[in-house]
Amino acid sequence: MTTPQLLCDSMLGELARWLRLMGFDTIFMPDAPDIDIVRRARYDGRIVLTQDRPLAAHPAVQAIIIESDALDAQLEQVRVTVGLPEGQPRCAMCNTTLESLSRSDAKGRVPPYVFRTVTTFSLCPGCHRIYWKGTHWESIEARLPGQGD
Ligand SMILES: [Zn+2]
To answer: Which of 6, 15, 61, 119 might form a disulfide with 26, Cβ 3.0–4.6 angstroms?
Structure first.
């Protein structure tokens, strides 16, 4: 079974960023009218994540009503209902799949204290942001239920 593609509506931007870092193909449509969200979800075959019950009840979309306003509870709800993704981490900002970046290529592009202490870097080929373990990944793992400790 392939990992479902997701679509977060306007209230769920922070959730969208975390879902991307976890590896979900997630688009975020702030300020989009419901009809545009419905069209995009149908076109791509995405599950809509929303706190808007009329949108979730639209007969043309598969939707999950996100119950909580707390990020941890939102991530847990997605994990329980959708499962964990099989894909590689994606850029939190632009949803592009991250590529590994060699340590030598990271030199000069990350703060010196990071370069000294971190060994594994990833690059977003879409917007050229650099991610590294020790900040993002540990935070992510801390937020993935059933992992760590
Ligand atoms: Zn990016």
So the answer is: 6
CA angle 99, 117, 145 (to 5 degrees): 65
| Rounded Cα gap, residues 10 and 134, in angstroms | 30
CA of 97 to the centre of ligand 1 (A): 8
**Cα of 144 from ligand 1 centre, angstroms:** 22
Tell me the per-residue pLDDT of 18-57, one tens digit each, with 9 for 90 and over. Answer: 999 999 999 999 999 999 999 999 999 999 999 999 999 9
Q: Which two tokens stand for residue 133?
A: 């373990």
Q: How far is the CA of 19 from the centre of ligand 1 (A)?
A: 14
Question: What does pTM read for this prediction?
Answer: 0.86
pLDDT tens per residue, range 57-78: 999 999 999 999 999 999 999 9
Taking the centre of ligand 1 as the mean of its atom positions, its distance from the CA of residue 60, in whole angstroms, is 30
The tokens for 65 are 């009503």
Give the C-alpha separation, 110 to 124, whole Å. Answer: 14
Residue ranges of domains in the chain, CATH in brackets: 6-82 (3.40.50), 99-143 (no CATH)
